[in-house]
Specification:
- The chain is of the alpha/beta class.
- It has a single domain (21-231), classed as NAD(P)-binding Rossmann-like Domain (Rossmann fold), CATH 3.40.50.
- 37% of the residues lie in helices and 13% in strands.
- It is built from 7 helices and 6 strands, in the order βαβαβαβαβαβαα.
- Helix 3 runs parallel beside helix 4 and helix 4 packs parallel to helix 5 (163-183).
- It starts with 20 loop residues before the first strand and ends in an 8-residue tail after the last helix.
- Mean pLDDT is 85; it is low at 1-9 and 212-231.
Length: 239
């Protein structure tokens, strides 16, 4: 296997992505924004997706420092029926799809009622699945293409107070493995990543004290088994 040669002068590895087109959901902040920066640094053009138009405009403005002609944005709520297909049809020439949009609430099984659970899965679980289905339809037979699902550590290290996210992440791991097991036959790599704790506004929201704290809770702290909390070793979006 021959590894890419570093670029002269800057010490950054050349990944051979120049000219590729990347679509990144949840791309206006946090992990998605940093992924967009990384692709731009590699010479890609990017489309970042968010349902928050104000945050999307701000992100596009910041990313335009890499070249205004290489950054576009799309405001759309991927939890809505038909939204994923609409997005995939609008950017059917995408080479790399990064599924990253999601806002699953923290809470144990008593705190997250059915309505909140379904609303969370409409974006993180069904949003991913629907966009995978729609984009795979455009990508297959046109290699090389990639679908990368940013899933989460809840799939591997379930926590008492992240039950909705744990279950959703396990489901997405399964779907990713199922599709990825045959996708190469069609020229598409489908893979997932379960990042550890990354210091984002999303994580800060998840770690806020619950309004139900103290109500029939186990004596053990709900997050006490998380070594990254005990040591303060959180990842950064840049890493």
């Amino acid at each position: 296997m021959v590894l890419p040669e570093p670029r002269a002068g800057d010490g950054v590895m050349e990944l051979g992505l120049k000219g590729r087109r990347a679509l990144i959901t949840g791309g206006s902040q946090g992990i998605g924004y940093s992924v967009a920066e990384g692709f731009l640094e590699e010479g890609c053009s990017v489309v970042i997706v968010s349902k928050n138009e104000e945050r999307l405009r701000s992100a596009i403005e910041s990313l335009s420092n890499y070249g205004r002609d290489r950054v576009r944005g799309k405001a759309i709520d991927l939890s809505l029926p038909g939204a994923a297909a609409t997005l995939a049809d609008a950017y059917s020439d995408t080479d790399i799809l990064i599924n990253n949009a999601g806002a699953i609430p923290s809470g144990d099984i008593f705190e997250v009622d059915e309505a909140r659970w379904r609303a969370a899965w409409d974006l993180k679980v069904f949003g991913y699945i629907n966009l995978m289905r729609a984009m795979f339809g455009h990508m297959r037979g046109r290699p090389p293409k990639v679908i990368l699902n940013v899933i989460g550590m809840g799939a591997e290290r379930p926590q008492w107070r992240y039950v909705c996210g744990n279950a959703g992440n396990v489901a997405l791991n399964g779907v990713t493995k199922s599709l990825g097991g045959r996708s190469l036959d069609h020229g598409v790599r489908v893979l997932g990543i379960n990042p550890g704790a990354v210091e984002t506004e999303r994580l800060k929201t998840l770690l806020r004290p619950s309004p139900m704290a103290g109500r029939q809770r186990p004596r053990r702290s709900p997050m006490s088994s998380c070594s990254w909390l005990r040591t303060g070793q959180l990842g950064s979006v840049e890493r």
